[in-house]
Design a protein that fits this description.
- By secondary structure, the protein is an alpha/beta fold.
- It has two domains: 179 residues, 3-Layer(aba) Sandwich (D-Maltodextrin-Binding Protein, domain 2), CATH 3.40.190.10; 195 residues, D-Maltodextrin-Binding Protein, domain 2 (3-Layer(aba) Sandwich), CATH 3.40.190.
- 45% of the residues lie in helices and 8% in strands.
- The protein contains 17 helices and nine strands.
- A four-stranded mixed beta sheet has the order 6-7-5-8. Strands 3-9-4 form a three-stranded antiparallel beta sheet. Strands 1-2 form a two-stranded parallel sheet.
- Helix 8 runs antiparallel to helix 9, helix 8 crosses helix 16 and helix 16 runs antiparallel to helix 17.
- It is globular, with a radius of gyration of 20 Å.
- The two termini are 36 Å apart.
- The model has no long low-confidence stretch (mean pLDDT 94).
Length: 390
């Protein structure tokens, strides 16, 4: 397994379960923490047909490019026994497929958005801690989320920021929009996209007003700040729950809770492909078919919070009635199912990741005080245009 970040398959016991069912199979994983380091390496390995894992993860922001330019490098998973198109959300299946129907990547999950928050920090700042009351504080508008943050900062515990990172705030807000970086014709429109502009304004305001912890997500500094409880809120799709639990440890158990996001959105949802050059591709394809079947997706959600991309799993007790002990027994099945219902189907372009990374870099400049919001945007536009050769 070639992975980026924390998927939780091993931690949820799925590797052990499959190995018991198939004693001749041994499953190992190689993990690179950040996708922007993982993905270029994957492209290099695909180009050379060497160094590839039997199964390679593909982030949703990269799937369009992989399908468009690397489809011949992967097996057609639609032909694998146990893989049925009818089991999966139609829009997710389509994202992983070529125009002629080859399934390059089987989808593992979706990322309906919530907000995870520290109840102890909210109480110290005089804010409500009940998840329903918290959801109502910012319901319907990410600007309200900033307003609550301003109130929080007036009485915040020493050293505790409202949000983790401007990049995280931006990503959550922009994920509420169907159209972001590309239009339906595949044209790059990020400069004029209302969703991008509004999300940039929200995130850059948070940065300039020092509502964020001046952190970069998925770095050691961010991990440490999470462990220390240095921020009160973080935008939180289901797969983030396991990450928070891992980094927060026992000392933060029960201090976190989960509220609805201001506006439903989707962040994440990966795909898994089996390269034609893989050493054990037939066995790998059988494992992928098993791992992302509805039953296993339901188990992974129950253990780690990754929300299934298989609708039949939503009616399973392990999803519908799921709670999370670490997050104060939050009814995460109910919370994320409601978020999924309101999530727009997003238009994904081949260079979504490149654009998003450069926007995050521009926000870092604002967060660090090196640029104001307008200057940071101008720098971002130059960087994106250079990256896209425009």
């Amino acid at each position: 397994m070639g992975l980026f970040g924390t998927f939780g398959f091993k931690e949820a016991g799925l590797y052990d379960e499959y190995e018991k069912l198939n004693p001749d199979i041994t499953i190992k994983e190689t993990v690179i923490e950040r996708n922007e380091n993982y993905y270029p390496q994957l492209l290099n390995h695909l180009t050379s047909d060497s160094g590839l894992a039997d199964v390679q993860a593909i982030e949703v922001a990269n799937i369009a490019e992989i399908v468009d330019t690397q489809a011949d490098k992967f097996m057609d998973l639609s032909e694998v026994k146990g893989v049925s198109e009818g089991d999966y959300l139609p829009w997710k299946w389509q994202m992983g497929s070529t125009a002629d129907g080859k399934l390059v990547g089987l989808d593992s999950d979706i990322g309906p958005m919530a907000v995870c928050y520290r109840k102890d920090h909210f109480e110290a700042a005089g804010l409500p801690t009940d998840r329903d009351e918290v959801s109502k504080l910012w319901e319907g508008d990410w600007q309200k989320y900033l307003d609550v943050g301003r109130d929080f900062q007036k009485k915040a515990p020493d050293g505790v920021a409202w949000a983790d990172a401007a990049g995280g705030v931006y990503n959550a807000a922009v994920s509420s929009n169907e159209t972001r970086y590309y239009d339906e014709d595949g044209e790059v429109i990020y400069k004029d996209s209302p969703g991008v502009q509004e999300s940039w304004d929200i995130a850059s305001t948070a940065a300039e007003e020092k509502l964020t912890g001046n952190l970069q997500q998925f770095t050691k500094g961010w991990d440490q700040a999470m462990s220390n409880g240095d921020f009160a809120t973080v935008s939180c799709p289901p797969w983030m729950l396991g990450y928070i639990a891992d980094k927060g440890g026992e000392k933060a158990k029960g201090k976190w809770d989960v509220a609805q996001a201001p506006v439903p959105g989707n962040w994440g949802g990966s795909f898994f492909g089996v390269p034609e050059a893989a050493e054990n591709k037939e066995e790998a394809a059988e494992f992928v078919a098993w791992l992302f079947a509805p039953e296993q997706q339901a188990k992974l959600f129950a253990e780690r919070g990754s929300f299934p991309s298989t609708p039949s799993a939503y009616e399973m007790d392990s999803v519908k009635n799921a709670t999370n002990e670490y997050f104060g027994d939050a009814p995460i099945g109910e919370i994320f199912a409601a978020a999924a219902e309101g999530t727009p189907v997003q238009i994904i372009g081949p260079k979504d990741q490149v654009i998003a990374e450069n926007i995050a870099n521009g926000l870092r400049l604002v967060e660090q005080g090196k640029e104001d919001a307008d200057g940071g945007w101008d720098t971002t536009v130059d960087a994106v245009d250079n990256a896209l050769d425009q």
